[in-house]
Design brief:
The chain has 236 residues and is α+β, with helices and mostly antiparallel strands. It has 2 domains: 2-93, Phosphorylase Kinase, domain 1 (2-Layer Sandwich), CATH 3.30.200; 97-220, Orthogonal Bundle (Transferase(Phosphotransferase), domain 1). It is 39% helix and 18% strand. Helix 4 packs antiparallel against helix 5 (163-184).
Amino acid sequence: MKQLINQPEFTQWIRHSLQQRENILAVSNQGTVLHYQDDGLNLIVKTAMGKGLVLKARQKTLLREFAAYRRMDGLRGVPECYDLLEGRYLVIEYIRGTAYRQAQWTDRDQWFRDFFAILQSIHQRGVSHGDLKSKSNILVTEDEKPCIIDFGTTFMLKPGFHPLNKRLFEYGSRLDINAWVKHKYYGRYADASEDDRKLLNYSRLEYLARKISGQSMEAVAGTRKKKKGPGSGSRT
């Protein structure tokens, strides 16, 4: 794999695809996502596009995402990342599966237990996703396993004493767990089990937004209290 992506021909394929608008899988707020298929290989290439400050900001986002993938190396439930070429082409594994929105499961409860375990594992590596409320960032693989993609909004915990960074990481982790509960119960928080309801932990801003919008506060009662963490309590 490293041999292929480090060859000039691969970078030339990327540039040609972008110039000719070919092999495009999607267009995101970071740039263009390409799909490479050849000789049994199946890869995704995320590209930072734009000019000037916009390009620099998107390259910085890709650098952060690359760093997150390096931390998560070897974990199940996230794509394998192969390299960041020229600081602007992020090469990762293509995951075969179904978008969460269209997915069906043989055992939905087990799928969500597996999903929760993946969240715990990435948080233990000091990585949070930050945008799992978006269903487009969740896949159901061909063997009906959860997979989290697109870490462009990631928060990473820095080693040492960094209070602000720690708060941001904790906030991102909280968003991940809140999203897990939301998806598990189709957004009907009142249907959540007692253990899962205890996991909900909204920031003051989120709490206020829910109150203003008239969403049920009974379903999230007590969420302003500090929790022990995503590993506490039994999963249902």
